[in-house]
Amino acid sequence: MAFTINKLRQQPAWIALIIFIALCLWVASGMLKAQNENDSSKRKSTEIPLVKVTVEHITADEVTREISLYGRTEPDRIATLRSEVKGLVEEVYVQEGERVSKGQKIISLEKSDYVSRLKSAKATLKLREVELKGAQSLKAQGYQSQSALAQATANLEMAKADMVSYQLAVFKSQIIAPFDGIINQRFVEVGDFLKEGDNIAILVDLDPLVITANVTEVNVQALKTQQQATGRMVSGDILQGKIRYISSISELGTNTFKIEVEVPNPNYTQMAGMSTELALPLETTWAMRISPAVMSLDEQGNLGVKIVVDELVKFVPIDIVKSDSQGVWLSGMGQQADIIILGHGFVRDGDKVEVVRTDEGSSSSNNLSSKAN
What we know:
- By secondary structure, the chain is α+β, with helices and mostly antiparallel strands.
- It is 27% helix and 39% strand.
- The longest helix has 35 residues.
């Protein structure tokens, strides 16, 4: 033992060196471990978790594209009945709002004066006929000049004109309906004195009823006469008709073209002057009905929706086909697509996402999830 201690005392430097190296290795191993733990922590902190989105598988339906216009109903015809002769109103046959037929009496004027003048004109005509025959006989015998014969002929023609004039006056003393319709307004009563041109009544024809509207220059080329049209009135009534007129010239200031849709109205149940929404069907296309909340804009401001393809977000520009109370119909996504209905506001085109699917896919005829952002 004493020998061993003496031997160690003779080599103090080696022992110190060994201890020093051991201490250095121990300290270095601790630092390396700490560094590894720090690097692992940094890697974990830089790893961004995938955004979770909810998608619904939607199948497209065949949808008819429509032009929606706002117009108003109008009569097919409207006429202001006026007096053509002067006279006292003797009889009124119709009331305001009454339906009348073509040829039906509206009012009659007192015509005794015209009847008396007509009788006088007929008597004068017979006299002029006798005078002409006498003049012709005398002319044949050489006792009458050519000018006298011409005067007799002129007198006869004047008598004929007077008789026809009074016949027309008697006929025009009765005002009749020029077509089937409704007396919308009446301006006279029994005892009123009318002059030529005075208003008597306004007659409107409501069968067919006409819906007028204005279509833009972009859509007018897609329309044609006899094309089917559907009108929805403010009362909720649905009217079916056909386009009967498309203006060939646009209106100044608006560059829109007037169109008229003819709607059968045999019972006069629909009135003129009502606001009406027109739907004009065009071509048929594949479209999906979704909630407007699902739509978004890309960086260029294009309107579209975000779908998922192989766990990657894809922005698809869309075309609005039509809209209804349950959503909007969009084309441009093919016949089926996985549409992001939750989380689309937090992802961009090309992002990889974690997909959460709804329990079941749906057709566009069903409502898209109301949970869309």
